[in-house]
Amino acid sequence: MRAFRASLLRFADDASAVFDEDGLLVVGPDAQGRRVVRAAGSYQALAGNFPGVAVEHLPCRIIAPGFIDLHIHFPQLDVIGSPAPGLLPWLENYTFPHESKFSDEAYAGELATFFVDELLRHGVTSALTFATSHPSSVNALMTEAQGRGMRMIAGKVLQDRHSPDGVRDQTEQSLVDTEALIQRWHGNGRLGYAITPRFAPSCTEAQLRGAGELAARYPDVWIQSHVAENLDEIAWARELFPASRSYLSIYDDFGLMRERAIYAHCIHFDDEDRALMRSTGAAAAVSPTSNLFLGSGFFDYEGARRIGFKHGLASDVGGGTSFSPFHTMLAAYYVGREGQTKPGVSLSPQNLWWQHTAGAAQALGLDGVVGNLQPGCEADFIVIDPKATPLLARKTAQAANLDELLFSLIVLGDDRAIERAVIAG
Ligand code: GUN
Ligand code: ZN
């Protein structure tokens, strides 16, 4: 066992933040040998219970749960900042040509190393990740994540139509490859597999049906896709699947909505879509920097809360513009506030932070496993330096309460504030 003394942030079951100004985090193996949080709370209350345990003192630092990115594309590192008039030309002109390079295993391996380094530098300790349609891209990422001991979930993209040579896969083979990857990686250490239809327009009915059959055979495997991001994309999906009630219900019609199914964007929904998210237990990966960059629209937080479906935060790099959870939380605040196209709401800093940690874990069906620092959680955490820049130091020193402290970090923070990311401490 070992312990860390610092300010300590974690979340209660009702999603409110719990903050110990002078806290203690004790980590060590559980009965199965997993490195977990053994105790968390105020230093004064806990210190006497752990005689002989070495305590690392981190004055003026905040220990917080490692961030979880609910939706990111590992092969789109170099696509960040590619301008386009909207999603579909962005995919065609930048994303597909770039992803075609990942048939080269050595290239995929290099990028996987850079990607994981970049996640950790930004304090992201777990992610639900798209690879490319090439199975070797999944192997590259999983191997890299396993080497670092990270809880990573990823999948080979399914796209057997409306995709150029180099990324288009073949229906039968794509399903055989997916099953082989599930068997190789799902539950292998901390790794998990996600069945990954890119989006309905890129998949034939046969491929979606096959994906749904795999999902039924492997009920604890994740599912990830995109939905209702952009108006042109929605019109296209409706045209291709006229029998489905809405774009979202295409996925339901093929058995792809359930607990552990995570849909990126979920912007242009009606209340029936929201009710379908709720009744199936699927979750939204809200991707605000991507939605602002690609001009896709604004996630309706009021609708999500009113109907009550699960949602959490995601970078969606490379549609998204930053790996930084601080930037994503700030963009989510802007998106929430927008009140011209949907009701504007002011998301609290505690809620924004929850959406990127314990809330994201809940969306993944991993509450109590990651995204929090309550006893029993896997000990993935970050050390934040609230004085990392002159302005941050000045502003956080004036914070009169936890909300002011968290908001200062959300608005002014970036990778400079992440001093350390600890995996399975
Ligand atoms: N829809 C289908 N593919 C993609 C992708 O790579 N990024 C985003 N943002 N939307 C998509
Ligand atoms: Zn995406």
TrEMBL record:
One of its GO terms (biological process) is guanine catabolic process. Binds 1 zinc ion per subunit. GO terms for cellular component: cytosol. GO terms for molecular function: guanine deaminase activity; zinc ion binding. It comes from the Bacteria. Its cofactor is Zn(2+). Residues 62-424 form the Amidohydrolase-related domain. The keyword Transmembrane helix does not apply. It is an enzyme of class 3 (hydrolase). Catalyzes the hydrolytic deamination of guanine, producing xanthine and ammonia. Belongs to the metallo-dependent hydrolases superfamily. ATZ/TRZ family. This is Guanine deaminase. The gene is guaD.
